[in-house]
Amino acid sequence: MGLNPQEIGGLRFEPDNGAIYNRADLLELTPRELALMKALMMKPGHAVTKERLFELVFPGETEVQYEAIEVVVYRLRKKLAGTGAVLMTMRGLGYLLRPET
């Protein structure tokens, strides 16, 4: 029995295969971008802390600067343009993925 997909804006996360779609099209993401998107889409409407995202995107990587998560977020924002979803910075809380208004 499969898990229910998560949808935000035009994006859909399919837990069964781990893919994220923009409407019918597979969203082309790097492994780090995909890890960040999965974390955000599994917590719809809730901010995920930078610390938690760093743990998920760079697991066990001690040589990576903490600010590297901001680079992944920056690249993702460009890829999310036109999807109906927006990646917001919640100052002091982390990041939140929500439908575009």
First-residue to last-residue Cα separation? 34 Å
- Give the proportion of residues in helices: 25-40%
- What would you report as the Rg, rounded to the nearest angstrom? 13 Å
- Report the CATH superfamily: Winged helix-like DNA-binding domain superfamily/Winged helix DNA-binding domain
Structure description:
By secondary structure, this protein is of the alpha+beta class. The chain has a single domain, classed as Orthogonal Bundle (Arc Repressor Mutant, subunit A), CATH 1.10.10. It has 3 helices and 6 strands; from the N terminus they run E-E-E-E-H-H-H-E-E. The longest helix is centred in the C-terminal third of the chain and has 13 residues. The chain is globular, with a radius of gyration of 13 Å. The mean pLDDT is 92.
Which helices and strands, and how do they pair?
Layout: E1 6-8, E2 11-14, E3 19-22, E4 25-26, H1 31-41, H2 50-57, H3 68-80, E5 85-90, E6 94-99
Antiparallel strand pairs: 1-2, 2-3, 3-4, 5-6
Helix pairs in contact: 1-3
Salient structural properties:
alpha+beta; 101 residues; 4-stranded antiparallel beta sheet; 25% strand; two-stranded antiparallel ribbon; 3 helices; 6 strands; Arc Repressor Mutant, subunit A
Short description:
The protein is α+β, with helices and mostly antiparallel strands. It has one domain (29-99): Orthogonal Bundle (Arc Repressor Mutant, subunit A). It contains three helices and six strands.
